[in-house]
Amino acid sequence: MMNRRTFVATTAGMLAASSRLARAEAMQPPRTRLILLGTGGGPLPRKSVAPSSQVIVANGAAYVVDCGDGVARQMVSAGIAPRTLRHVFITHHHSDHNADYGNLMLLAWAGGLHTRVDSWGPPPIERMTKLFLEMNATDIETRMADEAHPPLAPLIHAHDVTRPGAVMADANLKVTAAVVTHPLVKHSLAYRFDGPDRSIVISGDTTPSDNLIEMARGADVLVHEAMYLPAIDRIAARTPSAGRLKEHIQRSHTSAEDAGRVAQAAGVKQLVLSHLVPADDPAVTDQMWIDAAHTHFRGPVVVGKDLLEI
């Protein structure tokens, strides 16, 4: 039987240990989470995979990179409330990357967003934002009157990113941009996110890029677009303009092999293949993607899946 003195000493020891653990946890830097919301390349809606989007969550704030169709629903499916949105980063103005850019902010606001949101991307993101708010003025004004929402326009601050280098920094993340090549898009960007515990690079759509390699040096995670070259002919055969589509895909994107080459040159710790082309071909297995990337990259390779947390 435990006497009173032993009980008191044991309890005090447990409380002290609990207090030390709490202090140790409080001293740990916040964890920077990365969740792939959509991993498919191309704008066509699919049953099995969403278009390109990812969210980085730091200290409860959501930083969304690209806004393919359904991005708000994908956030909810990932357990991230859209009202926690604080920043949106667009890599380039193709519809599989920006179709739901405005809708994400509108739906987050309808769901209780009342804090500032900054959006960043190539021109003309400032003009696009203004036009989106004008297009949805009726809904916005009605909800303000019926549901006591604050005005939306003053919450949204759009910024044209016209050059590489520092984009923004706050208490959670420092964000840097690199200019990448994605014909025939005039402005295409990649982004690097440096948090207290890890660094994450998102390639956007690009051919193999020296600018991206330089920006990604030493990063913990590189999320790089990828195509599986042997399957491109099957994709092209489904469309009336097969030759033109095949030419576009091959000259505007990066093969899984070259994504591995970029990752190896940059010295990143982990390569994540996303914006997959094809995204839904059962003949292309995960191991095929991994083997292709491992042609040049010696580190771990992850094949992106919707709602996968890295």
Keywords:
Metallo-beta-lactamase, Chain A, 310 residues, single chain, 23% strand
Structure, described:
The protein is of the alpha/beta class and 310 residues long. It is 35% helix and 23% strand. It has helices spanning 4-27, 71-77, 95-98, 101-110, 125-135, 137-147, 210-216, 232-237, 242-252, 256-266, 286-293; strands at 33-38, 53-58, 61-65, 85-89, 117-121, 156-160, 165-169, 174-179, 189-194, 199-202, 221-227, 270-277, 301-303. The model has no long low-confidence stretch (mean pLDDT 91).
Uncertain segments are none
Distance between the termini: 49 Å
Structural class: alpha/beta
Strand order of the largest sheet: 7-8-9-10-11-12-13
SSE pattern = HEEEHEHHEHHEEEEEHEHHHEHE
Tally of domains: 1
Shape: globular
Mean pLDDT: 91
Put the structure in a nutshell:
The protein has 310 residues and is an alpha/beta fold. The protein has helices at residues 4-27, 71-77, 95-98, 101-110, 125-135, 137-147, 210-216, 232-237, 242-252, 256-266, 286-293; strands at residues 33-38, 53-58, 61-65, 85-89, 117-121, 156-160, 165-169, 174-179, 189-194, 199-202, 221-227, 270-277, 301-303.
Explain the layout of strands and helices.
Layout: H1 4-27, E1 33-38, E2 53-58, E3 61-65, H2 71-77, E4 85-89, H3 95-98, H4 101-110, E5 117-121, H5 125-135, H6 137-147, E6 156-160, E7 165-169, E8 174-179, E9 189-194, E10 199-202, H7 210-216, E11 221-227, H8 232-237, H9 242-252, H10 256-266, E12 270-277, H11 286-293, E13 301-303
Parallel strand pairs: 3-4, 4-5, 5-6, 10-11, 11-12, 12-13
Antiparallel strand pairs: 1-2, 2-3, 7-8, 8-9, 9-10
